[in-house]
Design goal:
462 residues, alpha/beta, Rossmann fold, pyruvate-formate lyase- activating enzyme, six-stranded parallel β-sheet, 16 helices, 16 strands, globular, disordered C terminus, binds cobalamin
């Protein structure tokens, strides 16, 4: 064996249709994993969750294994979302049929949340950040163990930009000139929202320094000429001082790109929002509900009333300063009733009262269950208390329309016999966005066209 080779694979998403929309996006997690072992071995990538190839979902797998030949020492499979699960199983079974002795390690958010799903399939299942665990496997190159082993990933507490190959930064480890670039500048989120998996990782945060982040962005603009840079950070702007310094640097440099990030409105200040607008950001705010009851059930904040007041105040500022933004809403969370859904709609409508300029776009979706979340572990409790019915608690194992399966949830007995109302948020949002976008100042309307028109940057979630 000349140089041992690690093959990193993103398995196909077989049953999620348009729900898995970001097929073009590069994967910061692959760049970081490859960077963590790049000095120990040859690393090859295979992203099968992009456009399916001519020979079906596993196009390129057989060829990649054949090309690498005997140097192939380990395969790393990223079950990044639960939508990747059945594709991960198919990929492992296919690899086993080609090379039964091939050691296979699995990681990613789904593997972290439901490691048992890979018992008897993978040799190792890594939960959490995978860099250190992968490095230990690439130092020892162990043979396949008798049965599946769990490896606890160590939280990446220091982000080192020199660990990433920025020149070849992109899908399948190759730069894609002219395409939007996804960049991770910070890991971690201190909040414990019940529908999200991030709390599983713990609150530890790590970031690049502001100077390094600015240098990385300038470098990527040089080498990749992206129309936009999207931050993959779970919660952008959690550190106000860091964010203000970064925005000052971006405004000063007046770079020829737009930016995208997701964050929380209650963390903002008027000064920050002004800077985001000047730096040509589109921000997506995970507000999720406008109802005190539902906000409390989701555990969005230790103080739900202050959270809603502060968020409304800052969202109005975002409109006033012309910062184009989306407001994510999550309807039908366990415990939701027609009354609490109406509270959310009234709360949002109140943001647009009067004739002032708007810059907002409402992006609602309905609740779906995810493993490893607090709402998953409270399914029985929600059923007792609210009459919540999650019809397909393990939807990711079912071939079929997984979006329909995952969202088949009766949030409370209050909706029994009124199931048709569970999707009434869609026409409501459509009408609101039509009236609000008619009140966009020309520069906001132009920004939205530029952002969604040519840039192809982060599309709104389904
Ligand atoms: C950025 C992001 C997006 C971006 C996509 C970015 C991209 N490049 O593709 C956008 C906004 C488009 C997006 C969309 C969605 N997303 Co998203 N997203 C994220 C986020 C914030 C990324 C975090 C990240 O990049 N971290 C940095 C990297 C370096 O770390 P990492 O991803 O944690 O990977 C580490 C480990 O998982 C592990 N690992 C990963 N792969 C492997 C492989 C091996 C072999 C090993 C050993 C280890 C390993 O090591 C990695 C490095 O430490 C995550 C997490 C979060 N907190 O919210 C959610 C997250 C992945 N998204 C999630 C979901 C559900 C979605 C949506 C389906 C939501 C929706 N509204 O419908 C959509 C669907 C996608 C679509 N529309 O196409 C869920 C997935 C949970 C699940 N069980 O499926 C997450 C976990 C958030 C949550 N709510 O819990 N998302």
């Amino acid at each position: 064996m000349a140089v041992p080779t690690l093959l990193l694979i993103a398995p196909p998403v077989l049953y999620a249709g348009q729900w898995w929309g970001n097929r073009r996006a590069n994967k910061p997690h692959f760049a970081s994993l490859a960077g963590a072992v790049g000095d120990l071995c040859e690393v090859r990538w295979l992203e099968l969750d992009r456009q399916p190839g001519p020979d079906g979902p596993l196009t390129g797998l057989v060829q990649a294994v054949a090309d690498i030949g005997d140097d192939l020492a380990l395969v790393g499979i990223s079950c990044w979302t639960s939508m990747h699960y059945l594709g991960a199983v198919l990929t492992i079974e296919t690899l086993r049929s080609m090379r039964s002795s091939l050691p296979i390690v699995v990681g990613g958010h789904h593997a972290s949340a439901a490691p048992r799903d890979f018992d008897g399939l993978a040799d190792w299942v890594v939960s959490g950040d995978g860099e250190n665990a992968l490095r230990s496997l690439c130092l020892e190159w162990p043979k396949r163990p008798a049965r599946t082993q769990r490896l606890a990933g160590a939280v990446v507490s220091r982000m080192d930009p020199s660990a990433i190959d920025w020149v070849n930064y992109g899908p399948n480890g190759r730069p894609e000139r002219g395409a939007p670039v996804w960049l991770l500048a910070a890991r971690g989120c201190p909040f414990r929202c019940h529908y999200c998996m991030e709390p599983l990782r713990g609150p530890s945060r790590s970031t690049y320094s502001v100077q390094n982040t600015l240098a990385i962005i300038e470098g990527l603009i040089d080498t990749h000429a992206p129309p936009s840079v999207a931050f993959a950070d779970p919660l952008f702007g959690a550190d106000r001082a860091w964010t203000l310094r970064l925005l000052d640097g971006l405004v000063e440099r007046d770079l020829p790109v737009t930016f995208w990030a997701q964050t929380r409105a209650d963390l903002m200040t008027p000064e920050l929002l002004e800077r985001f607008a000047q730096a040509r950001f589109k921000l997506d705010f995970g507000l999720d509900s406008g109802s005190l009851t539902t906000t409390r059930l989701m555990e969005k904040s230790p103080n739900p009333a202050r959270y809603l007041d502060r968020s409304a105040e800052m969202l109005r500022v975002a409109d006033r300063v012309g910062l184009h933004h989306e407001i994510y809403l999550l309807f039908n969370y366990p415990g939701e009733t027609p009354e609490t859904a109406a509270e959310t709609m009234r709360y949002i409508e109140a943001l647009g009262t009067g004739r002032g300029p708007m810059a907002a776009w409402v992006s609602p979706q309905t609740f779906f269950i995810l493993p490893g979340t607090e709402s998953y572990s409270r399914m029985d409790d929600h059923h007792q208390r609210f009459g919540t019915v999650v019809r397909n608690p393990q939807w990711w194992k079912v071939p079929g329309d997984q979006y329909r399966l995952a969202t088949a949830v009766l949030p409370s007995r209050a909706y029994a016999g009124r199931e048709a109302e569970l999707s009434s948020f869609a026409p409501w949002a459509g009408a609101l966005n039509t009236s609000w976008s008619a009140r966009y100042p020309p520069e906001v309307a132009a920004f939205r066209r530029r952002f969604h028109g040519g840039t192809g940057a982060a599309p709104p979630p389904p």
